[in-house]
Design a protein that fits this description.
alpha+beta, 5 helices, disordered C terminus, Heme iron utilization protein-like fold, 9 strands, 9-stranded mixed beta sheet, 189 residues
């Protein structure tokens, strides 16, 4: 990704050797999140809590087609994290429930629509306090594309496996999955 001379420059930079991390907490209703997800294109979706371990915390006119996506309906806050490390930038969003527990994570991939990512974050209501979200092992990791349609007055969200990832997207998705499974590159959180 980086040319060798740029990698040497970054390795000599003290700010780049220990990753700089930026965290923003945003309030977002599940309906707004579900409406925004199809704009993202391909992302890495990771459930961080047991699927189906509870109902949505507030009623909304949103349904999901599969149990792993039900965690999206529990989201009350988003924690947007950006980090710049020696091997490049990384971004992800943690979905936090009303009690402050992380329930899902979305990782930006090279195949993600970056403008859609920014639009999703712009829909959130900024909050002053930041949450500390511990590193959790993902139950599973799916490169997904989200689709939304209407059914009897409800928004229905479906996740389709993103099979057309770029070579770099496949490589990064595999590294993220390994890191969350507790193996390999622990920096990829």
């Amino acid at each position: 990704m980086f040319s060798p001379w740029l990698r040497q420059l970054l390795e000599g930079c003290p700010r780049a050797t220990g990753a700089d991390v930026c965290r923003r907490r945003l309030r977002m209703a599940p309906a707004n999140l579900v409406e925004s997800l199809p704009m993202l294109g391909s992302v890495m979706y990771m459930p961080l809590a047991a699927c189906g371990s509870g109902l949505p915390q507030r009623p909304c006119k949103v349904l999901v087609e599969t149990p792993p996506l039900a965690l999206l309906l529990r989201v009350h806050w988003l924690l947007a994290v950006s980090e710049v490390a020696v091997d490049g930038p990384r971004e992800w969003i943690d979905g936090i429930d009303r009690d402050g527990r992380p329930c899902m994570r979305l990782h930006l991939l090279p195949d993600t629509d970056y403008l859609g990512w920014d639009r999703l974050l712009a829909r959130g209501e900024p909050a002053l306090a930041t949450l500390h979200v511990p590193h959790l092992h993902a139950l599973e990791a799916y490169p997904l594309r989200f689709r939304r349609h209407q059914l009897a007055g409800f928004d229905v969200l479906r996740g389709e496996t993103a099979i057309c990832l770029s070579p770099l997207g496949r490589q990064l998705a595999a590294r993220i999955a390994r890191a969350h499974a507790g193996q390999g590159d622990r920096q990829f959180r």
